[in-house]
Amino acid sequence: MLVNHNLNMTSDLVEGLVSSTKASISVILVLVYGYLLRKFGFLSQDGESNISRLGTKFLLPALLFTEIGPLATASNLKNYWPIIPLSLFYQCVALMVALISRLAGMPQHYVPMFIFNNVTSLPLLLISALAATGGLDPLVTDDRTLDSVVKAGRVYILINALVGNLTRFAMGPYLMKANAPQSSKAWFRSYHDHVEDDSLLSDSNQETGHIALLDEEDREPPSIKHRTLSSLNRAKEWIINAMNPPLTGGILAVAFGMIPWFHRELFGPGVLSPLSDSLNNVGKLFSALQMLVLGSHLFSKKGSKTQPFFLAWLFTYRFIIAPALSISVVYFIRTTWPNLLDNDPMLDYVLALSNVGPPALTLAAVAVMADLPSEVEGQVSRILTFSYAIQQVTPFISFPVTITLWMIKQTGVGN
């Protein structure tokens, strides 16, 4: 029995390694294509810049709109609610780790790489490869076929991606750089000036032009109405400054998805379906073009030197600590509150592996939105490439896959 168990573990490990390697190779090859296109002059500097802006301002918002909209329903949020708080919990833990690392001197642009892993393309490729090689057979139950298991897994992955994409483009540009974007700086300056205007009264002196401060006892505090309106105006300005095209696309998808008529007519076979179909067609271009540009950056933006210690710490967290955290949390929930989650092994599988993997490739687009210096943007491109290369030549993904399958067997989910 022990021999059979060891053989099964070895087989699962090999299947996970093969599947993750295939997924990584497909990413690396597209990066190579982009590098060669830039090197041999098929892609110019202006072309590289234009594709980056096109992807960030149009293709990515279109992709998020068509990916998030069909899933943004009240029933999905009700049925799949455990995915949302767990996804946010993993991000909060990663944020705390990143902030502590900043105190040790880690560069600011590393912070979102700790928090936002690849939650869409890599998990979907991995689950498809595992299904083809028999890696998901242990999740098949008497009342569910392999096809239904894979379909459920895709839905769970996309719900997790919904959360990850919204938080990534809401927070990513601010976390990527130490200083806030120019618009936010301008807001803080206007806020500071406004506070001074509230606390200082001007005494116009036409001859001297001096502004005199009134004595403390002569100052009149602003009224409650004035303070409320002032706070609302500042909040409105902050929201406007914080919005970016990808975040806008995601928010619009949630808004239209939650309204039954729009959900049916826009994301179903309704009268507005040609609009969503067209956005879906152009949105699909983003992933390939983004990877081509990322590969082009490897040639055109040499990047500043990467400190090996921080790079090793990033990979240690993303490939070892993060999966250990998510698998442990799911195991704890399943053994402590067995009825809290649906009796679905695929749900446990996705929850355990949702925190696994390299930083998201879309962080290259976040770097563009953060308006980083060219050398830092080049370093971001190299770090993302290194992470997928490491995944390709190491079993860092296959170990969590194997341990997760073992954990599901131990808890008896689906039986």
TrEMBL record:
It is found in: Membrane. GO terms for biological process: transmembrane transport. Keywords: Membrane, Transmembrane, Transmembrane helix. GO terms for cellular component: endoplasmic reticulum; membrane. The keyword Nucleotide-binding does not apply. The chain crosses the membrane at residues 20-37, 83-103, 115-135, 155-175, 238-262, 311-333, 353-372, 384-408. It is a multi-pass membrane protein. Pfam families: Mem_trans. This is Membrane transport protein-domain-containing protein. The lineage of its organism: Eukaryota, Fungi, Dikarya, Basidiomycota, Agaricomycotina.
